[in-house]
Amino acid sequence: MFGQSRILVIDDEQSVADALRTILEDDGYEVEITGNGYDGLKRAAELPFALIITDLSLPDASGIDVIRASREQGCSSRIILVTANATPEVIAEAHACGAIEVLSKPFLPSDILSLTRAVLQSDSATDRDSS
């Protein structure tokens, strides 16, 4: 089930992006990386992704902007916002724009794996319930 899920990571910190790629690919996910919001939105419009993981601080936009724009372009991917600045205001805004969850940095590999699994399992349960 997990092995067929495509995940897009949008993060300009190469070390974070590489770590996420390794963690998620080792668990059987197909992972693509982009380093800015514009490229991430473009890629999400080209291919379906089960999940998008975006950083809050990007060189050309905020993760909130990415979430908002992805919803405006009709993207139905689940979205997790990752940030070192998980204030109540950021969390509320991310959820209001369509993020499924906000994950605080620094995080453990087990944190991202358990969250990814939970998000994608709930997505498949919703798909099964609606069919």
Write the layout of secondary structure elements.
Layout (H helix, E strand, L loop, with lengths): L5 E5 L3 H13 L3 E5 L2 H10 L4 E5 L7 H10 L5 E6 L4 H10 L3 E4 L4 H22 L1
Structure description:
It is a single chain. The chain is of the alpha/beta class. It has one domain: Rossmann fold. Helix content is 50%, strand content 19%. It contains five helices and five strands; from the N terminus they run E-H-E-H-E-H-E-H-E-H. Strands 2-1-3-4-5 form a five-stranded parallel β-sheet, with helices on both faces. Helix 2 (37-46) runs parallel beside helix 3 (63-72). It is globular, with a radius of gyration of 13 Å. Residues 126-131 have low confidence and may be disordered.
Pick out its properties.
Rossmann fold; alpha/beta
